[in-house]
Design a protein that fits this description.
about 500 residues, alpha+beta, 4 domains, seven-stranded antiparallel sheet, two-stranded antiparallel sheet
Length: about 500
């Protein structure tokens, strides 16, 4: 389920996956969980609150309260959430319930789910009332909310507030599972493995357990493993066929790719000597379908997957996309959706396209699995109509952390939904800039003296070592700052500008 969004004065507040610490207030369903929380809403699982620093928090609280007071259903839910967690406001379950009720009465599914849970857990000043909970879950589920359907199915499984009906539990679990709700998929696996509300089927039980496991359910993986011990090879193959058919019908190409990639990563993590090539070949096939046709002059027409390995070693964390190698350099192509998913996985990276286009660590993750990238001067380039933006930098890749002459170009272009990058060697010789080199030489000499003092102390003089590190860092910064200032004055600059413009033009063409 996509996040609900409240937009107020050009700010976007994402609503959280609610009640992540929800108590498991029922008995188990067969031998598995009846209910467990699943955050299926935003990238921010705390309602987006952490997205606001302390300076903006007071603004967020004030605008949320104002929106709630004017009858905005999402604002009412957000305010209830703040009171329920005691974030920025005194924790007050009764006020939380009041605002959830107001929002729920306006039809906000997430608020309806919160309200139903309050009646089950008897909090916020209300008595336990399964019938009332069922009514609110039904309102949410009727709107197509996966969590509401999942919660309602749990009540039907146990006959709490509604007549017990495994068939109706099956129906609502299926509604939630169709939206990729992991716990609903786990529950369906249990339905089919036990024959509750449906004809018993090992193949369908395996399919749903496998889908739930791909969505992150370790418990589903355990059930799947147990079930496999009782299945024939033909039954297993049929289950896998049904799983692939379901994925093709219910997931976007991107969702299918990431689910497959995560599944392979988990499987290979426990097999040190396993052959990764079949898995990488399957992922490469899928990613080609996502990226689409790539025609860039000077590069081959068919690229290869950028990920070098699916194990936690150099090459594992490379950006998802296709790599094209030629004597013109390396071309990398991905899509906005693939890149945004990647950035969300690595919060240490900038989360916007403009910001990431000038991030050194990003270029390392694209082009150099086992080396760093240092960017120096940005080279001005033009963009054509239909190209949101294009950038080019002088830089250098390598293992060293000391300044090196930037003899490479890094180019970043957004072309419709594709994101295209090139790393190419400079076509002209880049000479060092003497005044910049002098700054580095001075710091390096001071650092060498401090390092000698550190060694003379038999590695005991920590102040000397810290001085050595400080001189190194300041020297690198001074060299790079100087290089950036002086680049346009150098005799080789026009040649570099022409090369950068030529590369950008290639990337902007169809």
């Amino acid at each position: 389920m996509l996040a609900k969004v409240y937009i107020h004065k050009n700010d976007i507040y994402l609503i959280a996956g609610y009640n992540q610490t929800m108590r498991r207030f029922f008995t188990t369903l067969f031998s598995g969980l009846l209910f467990a929380s699943q955050a299926i809403s935003g990238p921010y699982e705390d309602g987006g609150i952490s997205h606001y620093n302390n300076e903006r928090l007071s603004t967020y609280l004030a605008e949320t309260a104002k929106a709630a007071g004017t009858g905005d259903a999402v604002g009412q839910f957000n305010l209830g959430y703040l009171y329920s967690r005691g974030f920025g406001l005194p924790q007050d379950p009764m006020k939380a319930l009041m605002w959830f009720q107001k929002s729920a009465e306006q039809g906000l599914a997430r608020a309806q789910n919160h309200l139903g849970l309050a009646y089950i857990e008897a909090r916020g000043g209300v008595s336990q009332n399964y019938k009332e909970a069922a009514q609110w879950f039904h309102k949410s589920a009727a709107q197509g909310d996966a969590e509401g359907a999942y919660l309602l199915a749990g009540l039907y499984s146990e006959g709490l507030g509604v007549p017990q009906s495994h068939a109706k539990a099956m129906k609502w679990h299926l509604r939630a599972a169709e939206q990729n709700h992991a716990y609903a998929q786990l529950s369906l696996g249990l339905h089919y493995s036990k024959g509750r509300g449906v004809e018993k089927s090992k193949t369908l039980a395996h399919m749903w357990f496998d889908l739930a496991a791909q969505n992150g359910s370790d418990l589903a993986r355990e059930y799947e493993h147990e079930l496999l011990q009782t299945m024939s090879g033909e039954e297993i193959r049929e289950a896998e066929r049904l799983r692939n058919k379901w994925l093709a019908e219910h997931q976007s190409l991107e969702e299918h790719y990431f689910a497959t990639r995560d599944m392979f990563s988990k499987k290979l993590a426990t097999k040190a000597a396993a052959d990764e090539q079949p898995a990488l070949a399957e992922l490469e096939k899928q990613i080609r379908a996502i990226v689409g046709t790539v025609k860039v002059e000077g590069f081959p027409g068919q690229g290869h997957i950028n990920i070098r390995t699916l194990k936690a070693e150099p090459g594992y964390a490379q950006v998802d996309g296709l790599r094209f190698n030629s004597n013109h350099g390396t071309l990398f192509v991905t899509t906005e959706s693939l890149l945004k998913h990647y950035m969300a996985q690595y919060p240490e990276l900038p989360q916007g396209l403009v910001e990431i286009s000038r991030n050194e660590d990003f270029y390392r993750r694209v082009f150099h699995a086992d080396a760093g990238v240092m960017l120096y001067a940005e080279i001005p380039v033009n963009r054509t109509k239909g190209t949101p933006f294009a950038r080019a930098f002088l830089g250098v890749g390598g293992q060293d952390t000391i300044p090196s002459i930037p003899n490479e170009l890094f180019v970043f272009v957004v072309k419709e939904k594709q994101i295209r990058l090139i790393n190419a060697s400079s076509s002209t010789e880049i000479s060092d800039i003497q005044q910049c080199k002098s700054k580095w030489d001075i710091s390096r000499a001071k650092g060498a003296d401090a390092l000698a003092k550190y060694h003379a102390s038999q590695s005991q003089d920590q102040k000397a070592y810290e001085e050595y590190r400080r001189q190194e860092e300041e020297g690198v910064a001074a060299y790079r700052d100087c290089f950036i200032r002086e680049t346009e004055k150098q005799p080789w600059f026009d040649s570099q500008k022409n090369q950068a413009h030529s590369l950008v033009t290639r990337l902007q063409k169809e």
